Task: structure prediction
Amino acid sequence: MNLSSNNSGEEGAESLVQHREYNVTEFTELNLSSNMIGYEGAKSFSWFLEDSPVTKLNLSSNNIGVEGAKFLAQYLQKSIVTELNLSSNFIGNEGAEYFSWFLEDSLVTKLNLSSNNIGVEGAKFLAQYLQKSIVTELNLSSNLIGNEGAKYFSWYLEDSPVTKLNLSSNNIGVEGAKFLAQYLQKSIVTELNLSSNFIGNEGAEYFSWFLEDSLVTKLNLSSNNIGVEGAKFLAQCLQKSIVTELNLSSNLIGNEGAKSFSRYLEDSPVTKLNLSSNNIGVEGAKLLAQYLPNSRVTELDLSSNNIGVEGAKFLARYLQKSIVTELNLSSNMIGYEGAKSFSRYLEDSPVTKLNLSSNNIGVEGAKLLAQYLPNSRVTKLNLSSNNIGVEGAKLLAQYLPNSKVTEFDLSSNNMEVEGAKFLAQYLQESIVTELNFSSNLIGNEGAKYFSSYLEDSPVTKLNLSSNNIGVEGAKFLAQYLQKSIVTELNLSSNFIGNEGAKSFSRYLEDSRVTKLNLSSNNIGVEGAKFLAQYLQKSIVTELNLSSNFIGNEGAKSFSRYLEDSPVTKLNLSSNNIGVEGAKLLAQYLPNSRATELDLSSNNIGVEGAKFLAQYLQKI
Result:
């Protein structure tokens, strides 16, 4: 259950706790983040934990402080909590110390203490007592452990059960990196995240030396001021490691660093390589391209690297001889000419997932890609934010039926009504099952065209969010849904209002839709009332009505019809349902099928939390 961001405060937390004797096994996950429960609320939860069936508890952003951490830590030993999120709570060194003492006898395997002002002393205690715990995943990101804290973690890694360690954003520099790298060899850590620190070239060099004998398979060193020299050492020593996933994005390796990686790719075990945002430029792209055919890389991210037209040409040419199946070249200014190169070499390329978004390929680029798509292996294509417009949409539409594309993203392309008309028509003859056409200004007329051709379309997942679709468009879509095989529909951020919601309600009964997103649509009480009533006759299991205006009256309607509704996941966040709405929902929850309920940001306050707590006994 998600009750985050509801201002429940200390009293709300206490009320939930008072009914702990009724909480049966279904109530195993609880999210109370961002509720200002403070020290007193944490204290109440501590007592509740002993007899609670909760295994996953999220109390992040609650200002519980040192004292709250002290109580929670003590009672963890008597609980069955296995996953605990206490991020952003100001527990500091002292709170970390308390947790350290009681970790030994707890069942916690996943612990998130990020953003807690934990410094060197806190890191010291946590590192020491981890050896006696069963924690396998630890997130200490965005704290203040620095080099000294990293040093302590290094010493105790040898006998620690931790396999996934996140120390990102901790002001760790060269010295900290040096110690961590050295002791990794004696640990069982397989995933290490050191992103957004300051290890630089020298720190990267130390990691390079000790990678050979470590068990690390996933390494994230993004945003670390690593330049050419650091990239050179990492590339060279990767050959002797078992690292299969490397993230070096947002560093400063440039074309020279890319050159180093290129030379050592052949004998490297890396299969997933992220070098995005590194300013590798044209020359770097050329060098990487030449060595790709002899590497094991199957997933390559070179987005935001200014590779331009020339870089795109080289990559396209050498991709034919590589085993790369997923390529991300978004935001690289390849333009029409770059798209032209990719088009020509697509036929013999192994790429199945291609992301060319935000590249300004325009109408001509879309035209060329469209012509060569039928002979390629591409099944997932992202061309969003490319200014391909109506003409580009027409050309792509004509070649879709002969392509292998099953997932197509054309969002934010100014396709308007005419573009929607052509795509909708040719979808019937394609094998596209997932289409993202969001943010294209298709309006009611465009929605009407999509509706008309849905009957014989293979599309099962359709995203038409942010398209200025109003009541009329919603009416057509709802009516033709009955004849389609669409199971997931996203119409968020449109303007369907109460009347549009009513139309959807009436036609839900005979549709195949199981996931429906109508968030941010100006739906009020009347719309909510109709949706709630007709949901009983539908097969919708997931409904998102967040950020509308249903208020407590709308919540009342949902409450009454929950009992016979198939909905298991209901999102009513940001609807100002208030105390009264929470009370009504609480009463009908025991007889519903809902397993996930999001009531965050609804001002349910203390009273609402009390009522929800009271009826949790029957969930």
